Amino acid sequence: MEASKYNYFTNYNERVICLNGISGKTFSLNKEEYAIFNEFLQETNKQDDNKYFTEFLLKNRFLVDNHSCELDYLKEMNSKSVESDYYTLVINPTMKCNFNCWYCYEKHDGEYMNSDVLSRVKCHIDLKLKEQYYKDFCLGWFGGEPLLYFKKIVYPLSLYAKEKCQAENVNFQNSVTTNGSLINKKMIAEFDQIDLRHFQITLDGDKSTHDQIRNQRGNPSFDRIIQNIIDICCLLPDSNITLRINYTDESIRTQFYNVLNVISMECRKQISVQFQRVWQTYSINKDNEEAKKFLKDNEDTLRKNGFSVSHNHNYSIFKGHVCYADRKNYANINYDGNVFRCTARDYSPNNSFGYLNEKGEIIWKEDKLHNIDAKPYFDNVKCLECKYLPLCGGPCFQKALSAIKNSEDFCVKNNLDTDVETFIIQHYLSVKEYNKSLIAT
Predict the structure, then answer these.
(1) Model pTM greater than 0.85?
(2) DSSP 245
(3) How does pLDDT run across 211-225, given as a tens digit for each residue?
(4) How many Cβ atoms are within 10 Å of 109's Cβ, its own excluded?
(5) Which residues are CB-contacts of 289 (< 8 A; sequence separation ≥ 6)?
(6) Nearest to residue 215, comparing CAs of 100, 328, 307?
(7) Contact at 8 Å (CB) between 122 and 75?
(8) Which of 50, 89, 178, 204 has the fewest CB atoms within 10 Å around its CB?
(9) Burial zone of 270 (CB within 10 Å; 0-12 exposed, 13-18 middle, 19+ buried)
């Protein structure tokens, strides 16, 4: 047996955090314990003498038979994940938005899904629920601002999908990515009727910064969005909100706990804060050490004050795929009937990968897909040789496609504000807090 290629060791507060990237198992040792542990990993005679500890390390993948079996395991995880028994359908009712954020890549035309496309989507839902057994049907709303057409499209189509899933004994999940400004208490009551429980809502900094970016003809939105988040938590206690904070080098200097401290401790249990850099502000010419510091300080402070903070936006413990768009049982239908995979690209017809016909079937443009789904996206020389493959997961669908089409580098982890060491520490702390909560209960 030999030590896993995917063991990671990081110094933290006079201790050493030990993590295996495939199993996600993590613990910390003092320096003397770590020296003994590291020696144990390297010497087979010690492993033979202590079968109990060896079994523990094998179970948690710190020890393996050989490195090739680790890659085989990652590929097996990918295969099970991308072909799993749930279907994800993301629908864009419109590309129109009530805001005009400077960094948005979408063209906010005034069109929305007409009755013909709406009928085709219903046929598609019928087909998917009948063609094979799905354990879960996950409906998602995107745009544009999808809640501009809540009454006309989101509510009736959600209700249709929910009732169809109930008839077929399939679990139904409903989610929305929204700027949060149009929500009101009446709408929240209707969210309850259509099982809309999962929300991604975005802020752009403190009140001053946010209101400069997100306003409707000069009318501010920050206070309204914060109140809507609180109302969702109070009126839908089984809901969860990903609060995504878009940041730049300037806005990340904000003390975001001071921004969010109006949210009660009870509501914080339903909120996961996720920081995401505005993509236009990435720089290839400098290492954003200052931004990294402010980002870490914000995450630590929010976590200490009762907020869940997602640290999986750059690195994570690999679960088989990087993005929901990597899965085969997934489609993103635009308001015009064109079908896409990636929601982080503009929705011009040239970027579509298929269309929805009158029977509800997706006619994929195979020539545009370049047979990309034939093998895992990380099945390339650079990813397979990389020590950090299980923490990175390799390229997503869009990055892999671009790399294949344009002979680009497959690596997606250049110039990030969160490094591997920071992720390992954050993962360790989150596991430690979770275990502490289990003991408390």
Answers:
(1) yes
(2) E
(3) 999 888 788 999 999
(4) 13
(5) none
(6) 100
(7) no
(8) 50
(9) buried
